[in-house]
Design brief:
alpha+beta; single chain; 5-stranded antiparallel sheet; 10 helices; 23 strands
Length: 588
């Protein structure tokens, strides 16, 4: 049986029900214990968003424009070390010198890939994230923009007088004729027009958003083109002396940086021959010695069976051959020597490139290695002065001009083991093992002019035969160069269009009024400041018979003056004949 509270003594389900009834009765009678005295109930914990939710959240954060701007800033910031510090791909010898001079900071910078920035994993991660962020941001916007362009213009707001630009007038034409006229006028101004519900809705200016999207899509294409060039392109440097020929072979490059997916078989079989190099310099004034022009007369073949063609290679006028561009980077001097060993045989006869020590007047240094000399190997260290003259104190020789007006070479002789037989690679611009396996010759120094010979003490001789010039060339193949140029041009056009074109909307509502006339309301909304186009549209809709001041229908006309004691005239409606109003958003 149950008591008055409805609690059942034998059934478990009834007991639970009775307990709930007791709580309801206690609440109704006001006898329930205060909340502070009740046992706290267990609050259910909110369920987590789960792994899929976290992935969705991360994707939304990555594809925001804010994240894209941050990543773009990080790419620019990450490129700074690549511009300040020497890079292994371009100057490995400078990297080695930097590590030698900075014993503490150098190894740490090397661990952070600061000498190989553009191939570093962290730079690639930023680059890829930026590409994904822009793609995830721009592509959905492009589809949304396309749907917006295909959609009908928005319906007219309820109160057109609250728009930033509005006008109101009456006409004798019927509402249907007014809307038909509005359709023709607005279509003539390239508006998209839709007439429904007694109003005409018109919209144009989507080209501005199209330009904005074109800019971002072009930025994506630019990143893709840069990646394409780094992946399939290559860059190599070569030193070419007058009278010598370079074949586009991997073994003949002084320095070569291939792309990630580059293969040796992709090198075009072209050849280059340097016939002559000429440099022009200022001869007077404060700029004396400054170069004014560089011209390299070369001959080239695009293939083994192709005809040989001449070309004038200059700064900023590269040669296009074999899908690559050949740029003129610099120049220098290559003295020509003939070395005879102790037995009188010619052991070396060739030009030797010298590297500049002093850029203004091209004082240069170089080494001559003669491993075939008998019985001892010979080596020489030389300093070249293109225009030799005495210094102001008269104690040393200096170069007074970069052109070879009076070339002089000073020679220091060495004998011993050069170290080439060990198989260890050596720099052609440096002598290895001096003081250990290679020793200076006593009284082995001599100043030589072209045509002079120095007999090395102990056997052998060296002759300064003359002076040639060399050029340093950069051979660059970048398949993403043209796509990058096109993308850059489109990006400029897109951003210019986005600033010049603004979104504009116009609504025209026509409704019947008393006396068979029609009340016409026109409203305009422009992204940014109002434009004169709205007033031109209103003038075209009014027509010459509805110009302001032509008749009593114009609400801007003032009524007759009334005498004293008459009731004041009611305030005119704010919508009447107002070319522009407060800059408020329309209320639908």
């Amino acid at each position: 049986m149950t008591d008055y509270q409805g609690t059942e003594t034998t059934d478990t389900t009834g007991a639970a029900t009775g307990t709930a009834d007791t709580a309801d009765t206690a609440d109704a009678s006001g006898t329930r214990a205060p909340a502070a005295r009740q046992a706290p109930g267990e609050t259910p914990r909110p369920a987590g968003i789960g792994p899929l939710g976290w992935l969705r959240w991360a994707w939304r954060q990555l594809t925001t424009m804010r994240t894209a701007l941050i990543l773009l800033f990080l790419v620019a910031l990450g490129a700074v070390p690549g511009s300040i510090l020497p890079q292994r791909g371009q100057a490995p010898e400078q990297v080695a010198a930097y590590l030698e001079d900075h014993k503490t900071a150098g190894p740490w910078l090397d661990r952070l890939s600061m000498f190989d920035v553009f191939a570093a994993p962290w730079f690639a991660a930023i680059y890829i994230l930026l590409f994904v962020s822009l793609a995830g941001c721009v592509i959905p916007r492009a589809f949304q923009h396309y749907r917006s362009m295909r959609a009908r213009p928005p319906a007219a707001p309820r109160n057109l007088g609250r728009l930033p630009q509005s006008a109101k007038y009456e006409t004798d034409a019927s509402p249907e004729d007014v809307l038909a006229e509005a359709r023709e006028v607005l279509r003539g101004r390239r508006f998209r027009v839709d007439v429904a519900g007694g109003a005409a809705s018109a919209e144009k200016g989507y080209l501005g958003e199209t330009g904005n999207l074109l800019f971002h899509v072009s930025l994506l294409a630019l990143l893709f083109a840069l990646g394409l060039g780094n992946l399939f392109g290559y860059q190599g440097n070569v030193l070419l002396t007058e009278g010598k020929t370079f074949a586009n072979s991997l073994s003949l490059y002084d320095q070569f940086t291939p792309g990630r997916a580059f293969e040796d078989g992709e090198l075009a079989p072209f050849t280059l021959t340097l016939d002559d190099f000429k440099a022009e310099y200022e001869t007077e004034g404060d700029k004396r010695g400054q170069a004014t022009a560089f011209n390299a007369d070369i001959r080239y073949r695009s293939g083994p069976d192709a005809a040989e063609k001449p070309y004038d290679l200059r700064i900023n006028h590269p040669l296009n051959v074999g899908g690559a561009k050949v740029y003129l980077l610099g120049h220098g001097y290559a003295p020509v020597f003939t070395v005879r060993d102790a037995e009188g045989d010619i052991a070396f006869q060739d030009s030797v490139p010298f590297l500049e020590m002093e850029p203004r007047n091209l004082t240069s240094e170089g080494v001559i290695k003669v491993p075939d000399a008998q019985p001892d190997q010979l080596a020489f260290y030389g300093i070249l002065w293109p225009t030799a003259m005495a210094s102001q104190d008269g104690k040393q020789i200096v170069s007074g001009f970069p052109a070879p007006l009076r070339p002089v070479v000073t020679i220091t002789s060495f004998k011993g083991d050069i170290g080439l037989d060990s198989g260890t690679p050596q720099s052609v611009y440096k002598l290895e093992g001096v003081g250990e396996t290679l020793h200076p010759v006593k009284d082995g120094q001599k100043l030589l002019e072209p045509g002079e010979t120095f007999d090395v003490p102990g056997g052998g001789s060296i002759t300064f035969d003359g002076l040639r010039q060399y050029v340093t060339l950069s051979v660059n193949r970048d398949p993403g160069r043209i796509p990058a140029l096109v993308a850059a041009i489109l990006a400029v056009l897109g951003v210019a269009t986005s600033f010049m074109v603004r979104r504009r909307r116009v609504w025209v509502r026509a409704s019947a009024a008393e006396g068979g006339r029609t009340v016409v309301e026109v409203g305009g909304l422009t992204l940014g400041n109002p434009t004169p186009e709205f007033d031109e549209i209103v003038t075209a809709l009014r027509g010459p018979q509805d110009e302001p001041g032509d008749g009593p229908d114009d609400e801007s006309d003032e009524g007759p003056d009334e005498g004293p004691g008459s009731e004041p005239e009611s305030e005119p409606e704010p919508d009447a004949d107002r070319g522009s109003g407060p800059a408020t958003e329309p209320k639908e």
